[in-house]
Amino acid sequence: MNHETVYHEELPSVTGWIRNKLTNPKERIRSYFLSLFPFITWIYRYNLVWFSNDIIAGLTVAAVVIPQGMAYAGLAKLAPQFGLYSSFVGVIIYWFFATSKDITIGPVAVMSILTGTIVDDIHKLYPEYDYHVIASALAVVVGCAVCALGMFRLGFVVNFIPLPALAAFTTGSALNIIVGQVPVLMGNNKSFDTRQSPFLVFINFWKNIRFCNYNAILGLSALVLLYSIRLFCTYAIRRYPRREKLFFFLNTLRTVFIILIYLFISWLINRHDPTHPHTAILGTIPQGFQNMAVPTIDRTMLSELVTYLPSAIIVLVIEHIAIAKAFGRINNYAIDPNQELIAIGVTNVLGSFFGAYPATGSFSRTAIKSKAGVRTPLAGVITGIVIVLAIYVLTPVFFWISQASLAAVIIHAIGDLIIGPKTLKQFWRVNPLEFLIFWIGILVTVFSNIENGIYVCILTSLLLLLYRFGNAEGKFLGQIQFVSEREKRNVYISMNHSDGTNPMIDPVEMNDGIFIYRIYEDFLYPNAANYMEKLVEEVFRKTKSGKSFLYKNLGEQPWNLQTSRHPQRQHQLLDPRPHLHAIILDFTGISHVDITSLQHLVDIRQQLDNYTNSKVNWHFVGIANPWIKRALLAHGFGSSNDINQTFAMANANSILVPILDTSYPLFHVDVDEAYQTALVDLAKRQNIDSSALTVS
């Protein structure tokens, strides 16, 4: 049988890493700039079939976004036309940079109310800045920041915001918006300040309930009709599946239907005296893009906006990326988060020149667009054309729109953002701590504001993440025999069955001075001390020192060690525990180590060598990252003159070859190989010790 005895693994180097990154720089630069305009990869294949689907989806979204845009502008403390401007720019520019065919960028409820809070706060301090000027400046600043995140490929930061935090601030924001819109719906919004914290608005609403007027009739009936149409269409889709498409479009266009009906009713009520209407109406909306201008951003404005930048970026980015990923999974395509950040950023920067305020992806309109059968992002151009027509042609009609019906539209749309009992039950069953974070976020949002709610949700989630990572625990493994019809082999499981193994199985504990310790998280500075403390504690508990006499006299004993007052008697007491021989660290689940964690290993190695009065072998299993091997070797781990590397069959010709680098025999493929190697070395040492005793 052939026997190949030498194999050397090429370890990574910094120069090699740099050389690899700089390989073919022209192609990398070309690919980067092409990735900024994804439409180049599909526009030349555009065809009539795609166009027919896109035009249906574009028209459907336009019918929804026009009333929603005007309604959401009110949440941003802006006139209705600014919602139309944001809607237009969002759909007309996004397709150049889009990696999602479904996303529709435009005004959304949460971003609108956050914008309203920001512009209101700044306007109170600096009344010389108009609301729309502050909103457009915010769009520029936020757009530039988000675009920079995408350009520098920092989209991964979105992954640090977990679902409970996202659900908390969307639910809290939805409650905030609903509470603020109920007075508009009922007509008593002029009798108190609706810009206070939600709980104060709720209290003052009931205090001023007597001031409700005819608007309540319009608003409540519109809200009931919206929910009735949706319930009917949902039932009809289940009852008549062959007509699903028909009922889908009826359900989708219910907002347009309600707005048109109540526009007509509002006109009938107020047509004789439009200057003193009986019910609240939208009022005059200027035709065209009357607020097109270069955004005003001076030093004062910028310094104020920067303080609100983190919360604005979070809302802008989280909602969009979450929606894009969700619909990418539903429709079987992948999005590029970094490119989506660039798309949001550029859209908002350019939108500010049209008078738009910050816009991002809308869940409801994206769902409608997807369900309508959209084929490419070019459907947004169709939507944009319809919005332009509305801005230039339909503004006289918009004058008569009932504000109460718009409030009903907002409440109806926002209601879907509230997390239901089924999801809350799942949160509780999966992780009670995250369930608690969810409620903390909602309470802060309701009793303070959306901005504080966002910060509290994310901060508590990050603290929980750090706590979990810093308190990660390794597990000591025991041996069991796995038996099947084909094979019999050793398997290693947690001694306390924390890995879900059957408690009836009793793993064999290692009583030979060999410890198998599995680490489940990356071995980094926050958790390294915790891992090593548990390891040393177990070693001291289950082994005895290698020194014959621990302490020569009472004065040498440590103050914190409880021992006999007669040190000379310690060696006379027979200690059945074995001496420490080897430690096997299972690094299978580890992808990174750092300088601090490696220094902990070095310190513990020195401590245990002193404890045993000999050298303890450290075996490492399942190292997948070659940079970890490089780091361990730099600290003196991995090599041994007394241990040989394991061999395996290379092919059908029965050639035996080393599995890993023969220079580093303390690196192993699996736990059993490491344990068997440690046993062989232990037997060698015991034989040497026996021979030494015989000679003496």
Largest sheet at a glance?
A: 6 strands, mixed
Low-confidence stretches: 692-696
Structural class: alpha/beta
Helix content: 55-70%
Number of distinct beta strands: 10
Shape: elongated
Distance between the termini: 42 Å
Could you describe the 3D structure shown?
The protein is α/β, with parallel strands linked by helices and 696 residues long. It has 2 domains: 46-467, no CATH class; 475-545 and 577-686, Transcription Regulator spoIIAA. It contains 23 helices and 10 strands. The strands form 3 sheets. It has a 6-stranded mixed beta sheet, covered by helices on one side. β8 (647-649) and β9 form a beta hairpin. α18 runs antiparallel to α19 (450-470). The longest helix is centred in the middle third of the chain and has 32 residues, at 299-330. The protein is elongated, with a radius of gyration of 34 Å. Residues 692-696 have low confidence and may be disordered.
Short description:
This protein has 696 residues and is of the alpha/beta class.
Throw out a few tags for this protein.
696 residues; alpha/beta; Transcription Regulator spoIIAA; 2 domains; six-stranded mixed sheet; two-stranded antiparallel sheet; 23 helices; elongated
List the helices and strands and how they pair.
Elements: H1 14-21, H2 25-35, H3 48-75, H4 80-97, E1 105-106, H5 109-125, H6 131-151, H7 163-186, H8 198-207, H9 214-239, H10 244-252, H11 254-270, H12 299-330, H13 337-352, E2 360-361, H14 363-371, H15 379-398, H16 403-414, H17 421-430, H18 432-447, H19 450-470, E3 475-483, E4 488-494, E5 514-518, H20 525-542, E6 582-586, H21 595-612, E7 617-621, H22 626-634, E8 647-649, E9 656-658, E10 667-668, H23 671-695
Parallel strand pairs: 5-6, 6-7, 7-10
Antiparallel strand pairs: 1-2, 3-4, 3-5, 8-9
Helix pairs in contact: 3-4, 3-5, 3-14, 3-15, 3-16, 4-13, 4-15, 5-6, 5-12, 6-12, 6-13, 7-8, 7-16, 7-18, 7-19, 9-10, 9-11, 9-16, 12-13, 12-14, 17-18, 18-19, 20-21
